[in-house]
Amino acid sequence: MRNWLIGSTLILASCGVASETTVEDAARETASAPIDQTRLDAIVAAHPMFSGSVVIARDGEFLAQAHVGFSDRDASAMNTTQTFHNLASVGKMFTAVAIIQQVEAGTLTYDTPVLDLIPELEGRITPDITIDHLLHHTSGFTRMGGLDDAVIDAARTNTDFFNLVLTSNVRSDGPADFAYHNPNYMILGEIVQRVSGLAYRDYIQTHINTPAGLSGPVYVRSDTTEYDISTAYLPVDYDTWWNSEDGIPGTQVDDFVHVTPPTMSSAGGGAFAMASDLAGFATALRENTLINAESFAAMCGLDAAQIERGRGYARGCSVSHGAQDNRRGHTGSSAGRQARFFLYERSGLDVIVLSNHEGQAAPIFGAIDELLRGE
Length: 375
Fold this sequence. Notes:
Layout: H1 3-6, H2 23-32, H3 37-45, E1 52-58, E2 61-68, E3 70-72, E4 77-78, E5 85-86, H4 92-105, H5 114-117, H6 131-136, H7 149-153, H8 158-167, H9 183-196, H10 200-212, E6 233-234, H11 238-242, E7 258-259, E8 272-273, H12 275-286, H13 293-299, H14 304-309, E9 311-313, E10 318-320, E11 327-334, E12 337-344, E13 349-355, H15 361-373
C-alpha cells in the first residue's frame, strides 16, 4: 500500500527619531544575522544532492532563497520561485488551522466527541475520543490496512480518503499515547466539511488561502498539468525503495532519476504549494490573520511533560525548545518528497525547505537550524 497514505514521517534603524527597542526586538535582530544569501548559498552548495526550494523570511520579507535542481528532468525544467512542491504532512497545519477557526466561530469545541460529528464510526471508536485527540494524534487509532492500491489511487477528494478510512480496519479502544497516523487528519478534514458546508479543498481556499493571499496549497494529483508541480525522484526504482527496510540513500545527484507513482492530496497531507506560500502562511499565523494569538499559542503549546523534554506535538504543530531559540511548525516526508516548515520564536525567522529528491530537505534544514539554534 502507498506509504503516503499510511503515514508521513514526523519528524524570522531609525533615523533622527528615538524609538523604543525591546529585548525581544534586539534578540530577533541578533539571531537573524547568521542567515543571509551568501550563507544560504554556501549551505546549498555543500549539499549537491538537494533539489527544491529554500526560503528564509522574516516579517514577510525574504532574507535569502534558493531554487535549484530539476523540477522535471525529462523536460529539462528547473525548480523556480513558481514551482509547486508537495508539502507532505506539513499540510496538517492547514487542517489544524481550519479546525481552530471553527472552534473560534463556536461551531466546535476541542472537547466535542468525534462520534457526535461522525456517527459512521460508531462501534469502531469509543465515545470519549474528541477532536483534540485527533489534533494531538492521541486518538488511539490503529494504522490503515487492507486497501488495494487501485482503490487508493482512485481517491480524488478528502471525502474519498475519509471513505477509505471507513472501509479500512482503522479503529480505537480509546485515547492513548501519541501515535502519528494520517487518518486522524483525514477525519478532521471531513469534520471541517460537515460543519462548514464547504468541501475541504474549498474551505482551505476560502478561509485560509484567500485571506492570507496564498496561491496554495492546492489539492490535486501530482500528475496534473494545471500547476507547475515538481516531479518526485528516488535514487532507486519505486518497488526497490518501497520494499527496503531502512531506505536507500543516493550517493550523487544523478542517482535521482526514478520517478514515483502519482499521488493525491488529502487533509492528512500531500497538498502542493510554492515555498512563498508557506512564507505567507507563516506571516498570517504570526499576524493573527487566520486565528487569534491565543489560539496560535495553544496550537503550538506543549504540556508540562513535553516542556520538560523540550519538545512535543501539539495541535498539528511540532515544537522544539532550544537554548538559543524555539521553533514551531511541521515536517513531512513521502516517496521522493521532503518538507520542513518552522517558525522561530525569538529570531522571528521563518524557514521553508521543500525538496523533490528523497530525503534531501533534512540536511539543508539541519544546517540552517544549527546556525539558528546552535544545536
